[in-house]
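Tip: read the tokens left to right.
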């Protein structure tokens, strides 16, 4: 498995001293453009203990391989200041769990210096200090620091080079597109949430959470309204947060009897904040192979729209498609398609609690993420080589080394082994993508004549 080294440079290690948590930043994007060490927020977190436990949970997710547990290195969380909130994100080392801690307006009292996205240093001593935070006292928080420039004279500069697996980068893009199609399925009160989460089995299995009045019951098979719980132990980082829990909300796609495993989102409401875990469909199955981004990347139809819409974003906590449509001179469907494409590049995230995208800029090369999809590369090679021929408006014949595949681009169906195995459950196969690329190219050529 190939990987890319992500270089971080911090003026000093993040640290928790007495009642002050200083999070050092490394390279990022703000409303003023790229900044070496941005300064986003200085003030107070009014609920220190749940904030510390939530940040520790993010760090634990980032260093965990759930399907094959073994020690792994730290991957520093990404933090975005959206003005009225701070969002901290991480991804598990195996690529199967996405975690986010939202510090909302009710938990913050201070000054927003700038809006934007950066990495923050989370180190061993900081983890130990966070584990000792308790009580109801407020916590002074600085995300970045105006004084960091002078601290480089004491030799405390922290340089890190962390290998980021290709599948990890792809997964970060996939999860935003997948969860944008989810709806709320259940909401539990604080006590019910504690009862449900503490009662989860620790065995590795795929279960289904079925709404039952004001509670959830576990089942071994899907039913209408159920939410998949693939690997209950992957919710383990919620355990230290349960004493602060006010509610648990669960999101997922529509399912029916006979459905296979599906991704899901589990959101724990805390005082003034939310801790969110998105789970891939199976323990051994990361988000990187789900193929949700492939259709958005397959053609250039929305590329220009995405560039225009992206230029109008300003780190809003909620991206309003209708407002963007008016500013961009596009209709709402084109704006939503552009947002999907921006999601594949890591330029927007998706918040299921508010059913809205939010602007952030992951500090990774979006072109590289797009290039990491082997199905997409194979589909382009087929389309460019003239391997696709349309026998009917919605029947394409794709010639490959394994024979001729019959493809229904509209339905996304194919006669290849990949489609027979997955039936579209992991995105389109390369033959469907190649047929859609060819159809779009022919349509463009026809319009230009």
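Filled-in amino acids:
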């Amino acid at each position: 498995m190939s990987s890319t080294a992500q270089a971080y440079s911090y003026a000093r290690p993040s640290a928790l001293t007495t009642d002050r948590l200083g999070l050092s930043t490394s390279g990022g994007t703000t409303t003023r453009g790229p900044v070496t060490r941005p300064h986003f927020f200085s003030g107070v977190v009014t609920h220190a203990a749940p904030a510390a436990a939530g940040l520790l949970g993010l760090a634990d997710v980032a260093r965990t391989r759930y399907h094959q547990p073994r020690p792994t290195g730290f991957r520093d969380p990404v933090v975005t200041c959206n003005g009225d909130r701070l969002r901290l994100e991480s991804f598990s080392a195996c690529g199967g769990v996405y975690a986010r801690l939202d510090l909302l307006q009710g938990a913050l009292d201070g000054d927003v210096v700038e809006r934007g996205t950066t990495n923050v240093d989370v180190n061993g001593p900081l983890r130990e200090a966070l584990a000792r935070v308790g009580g109801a006292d407020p916590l002074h928080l600085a995300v970045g620091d105006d004084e960091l420039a002078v601290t480089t004279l004491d030799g405390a500069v922290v340089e890190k080079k962390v290998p980021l697996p290709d599948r990890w980068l792809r997964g970060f893009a996939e999860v935003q597109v997948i969860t944008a199609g989810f709806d709320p399925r259940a909401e539990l009160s604080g006590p019910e949430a504690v009862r449900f989460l503490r009662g989860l089995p620790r065995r590795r299995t795929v279960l289904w959470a079925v709404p039952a009045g004001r509670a959830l019951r576990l089942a071994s098979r899907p039913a209408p309204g159920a939410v998949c719980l693939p690997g209950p132990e992957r919710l383990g980082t919620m355990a230290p947060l349960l004493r602060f829990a006010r509610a648990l909300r669960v999101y997922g796609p529509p399912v029916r009897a006979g459905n296979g495993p599906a991704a899901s989102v589990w959101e724990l409401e805390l005082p003034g904040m939310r801790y969110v875990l998105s789970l891939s469909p199976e323990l051994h199955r990361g988000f990187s192979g789900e193929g949700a981004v492939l259709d958005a990347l397959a053609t250039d139809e929305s590329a220009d729209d995405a560039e225009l819409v992206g230029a109008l974003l300003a780190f809003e906590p909620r991206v309003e498609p209708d407002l963007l449509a008016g500013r961009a001179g596009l209709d709402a469907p084109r704006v939503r398609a552009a947002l999907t494409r921006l999601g594949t590049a890591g330029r927007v995230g998706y918040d299921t609690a508010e059913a809205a995208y939010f602007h952030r800029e992951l500090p990774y090369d979006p072109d590289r993420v797009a290039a990491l999809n082997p199905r997409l590369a194979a589909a382009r090679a087929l389309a460019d080589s003239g391997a696709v021929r349309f026998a009917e408006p919605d029947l394409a014949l794709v010639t490959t080394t394994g024979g001729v595949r019959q493809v229904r681009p509209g339905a996304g169906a194919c006669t290849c082994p990949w489609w027979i195995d997955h039936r579209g459950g992991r995105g389109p196969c390369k033959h469907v993508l190649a047929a859609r690329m060819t159809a779009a190219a022919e349509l463009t050529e026809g319009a230009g004549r």
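The two ends are 45 Å apart (CA to CA). The longest helix spans residues 430-448.
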